[in-house]
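Case study B.
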Amino acid sequence: MKKDFFDISFFLDSSEVAVICKLFPHKLFDSYQNLISSAKLEQLSQGEILSTSIEYKNDAFFTLEALKEDSFHLKKYLENRIEGHLEFRKILYSYENNKNTANDLLGALSLAEKSALRIEEYMPSFLRLIRSRFLVKSCTIFLVTERGKISPWIGVGDDGQDLKKEKISFCDISCAALVSNVKKIFISNCPAENKTYLSCNPDMAEIPSNFIYIPLMKNGEVFAVLELKNYLAGNVGDKELSVIQNLSRVLCQIFIEHFSNMQIKHLEKTSTGLEKYLSANVVAQIKKNEVNTKEISGVEKEVVVLFAKINNFSEISKRVSASVLIDLLNFHYEFMAKVINAHNGTIDKIIGNVIMAIWNHPIEQKNAFELALNAAIEMQRISSSHVVPVYKERGILNYGIGIGINKGKAVAGNLGAQQFMDFTVIGDTINLAQRLESKAESGEIWIKKEVLSSERDLRVKPNKMVSDVKIKGKDKPIDVFVYTPLAS
Amino acid sequence: MIKKNQTASVNFIAKSLLEENYFAYITHEDRNAWDEWAVKNRRISLLENFSELDENQELAARKAKYLQFAILNVRYKNESLAQKDLVNKAESLLRKSIHNPIMLPYFINNFDDSLLKHSARVTYLTILFIMAHPALVSLDNTQALIFSSIIHELKGDPATSFNPNSYENTIEVLQKNKMIFPESVVNIIQSHGELYKEKRKTSSNIALEIFLLVNRFDHIYLTATQNPGRKIRLEKTLEILNGIAESFEGTVFEYFKDYIFHIDYIV
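Model:
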């Protein structure tokens, strides 16, 4: 009886099958019931046919239809071939640096996107690919929702069919929950003797021969868990773990892509994309028509502008790969954006390692400067407490941000051509803020003396003053107040 | 019983560990001696297992405390042989549940003792009641319900804060503290809250009805009267429960009113 199948190309190439089998009348079917080899069909139709499974350790791979007298030898031969491949782990040759499977997955993703398939539609095929390449009997993804829940999402079961959610044991879900809480890989080659696993499985539900649970993470948070059970080619060792970790990274990439697409679609649906560059508060006011639309289309007004840059960026970018750099930058910007939004600022733009935010536009904010200053202080604190540790993990010890703030007149509005419209502010005020940011060392916030002096009710006082700072494009040097919130 | 700060022999601790009924603190000075003893006596596997789950003594202590809150505060008044067997099984089930790794986030977060006590009493009484009434509902497939009962209230003071929206507070804490539990466990908390709001007379999920009733009982018992006497407190609680009887499944409520008189309930 057919129990399980894998991709034939990993065990026998078609020419080999043809050479071996052409002498015998037969039909050989692959995992998807495709006829992959046949010979002497006329003889086959004349004799007594035996249909049999080609197995390895009680798991069927192919179905063979042959004359009764030939089937025993054919079956033995094919099984030996499979066993030989598995025992010598030749299958793993294709996993060198995981290029093949990773590329296959990414190629499949590209096709899926072109076909406008939803993630739910193409993910089962991905799991089948992982399952057949990695030689595990079942493969499941559990998703973590925002409300503290984890539940099975998509899986391929022992029989190669889509896994029905109700068939997934509470023990499996418990293991996935455990992994998502401790954020560690849970692996066992002998679950029957693993205390942690047995604690998850007090009813002793069906115990697999081995398993791997891998958390899929974004920005340090687990959003899904990949479960692989019953690896057929022996114990899960370092090599297998490395392969599967690479695969899980590809899966992460797919999910992250999916999440960002979802986010964009959501924004498009809800607010024609305004949230992409305005704080939620501002968007809400625009929606309520509390903002004069002329304000968005162009006006000269007083604004407060903040520039924050990651210092030593060129050195950092040399230390890590491009994809890691993007991850690290996104991680940094996620926190920065949260702080700016929380202080009702509007992110104007992000250019490489620099983020620019404005206050008092498009909505009037009486305490615009104080909001910007508090945001800057919070940005320094949060980068020290939340971002620095992550950069350190990657061996980057010199991460830090320098911030410049300025207040003054600027022209604000939509700037650009019909095809590319950018909501922004321009003017000397903006240029000076950027110059101050470029002077600020990690942990510092630079503000022009006159600007700070005009703000009388500020609760937080600067830590020092720097006199006669030469600013590019300015004839006279200026005096600057410096905040160092991490030092105080 | 050892008192706080009183020292105990290694043999005593070993016995306690074997019985899994107690917990002990090892001082830093004694850590090496303890490790030596643990290796010699092959207790190292237990420690390894603890470290695998990022466990520590504080966590183990919290679990032990939870167990104590349950078994010392919910007891049969006169334990017959059959009841003793039932109590042993209930204790074993509660112990397995709190040691299940999915409960890790609950015990890692240092929730207030009043919440721990409330959770322990409600969970243990729910288990005891279900075990004592096999005709009403089987304990099979109630594992998720037991986990839900343990984590059902994570915010506020159980004596004052219970309301139909309590479950939303719990979900909020799960989100805030990034605690992740199986969907079925979280859904029960939600269903429990919705059931309370709807005041339905019947539900197809009897185990959930029992949990709802026991939870309401505990909340009301905490504040039913200023009188410290347990008998008066119980009578007053039942009087209040009778007044809102339509909130509960009829048969479950009738059985419960008889059953609770056999229990010495301490808050």
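The interface with chain A takes residues 45, 49, 52-54, 96, 99-102, 104-105, 143-144, 171, 174-175, 178-184, 186-187 of chain B (CB under 8 Å). The remaining cases will be described in the next quarterly update.
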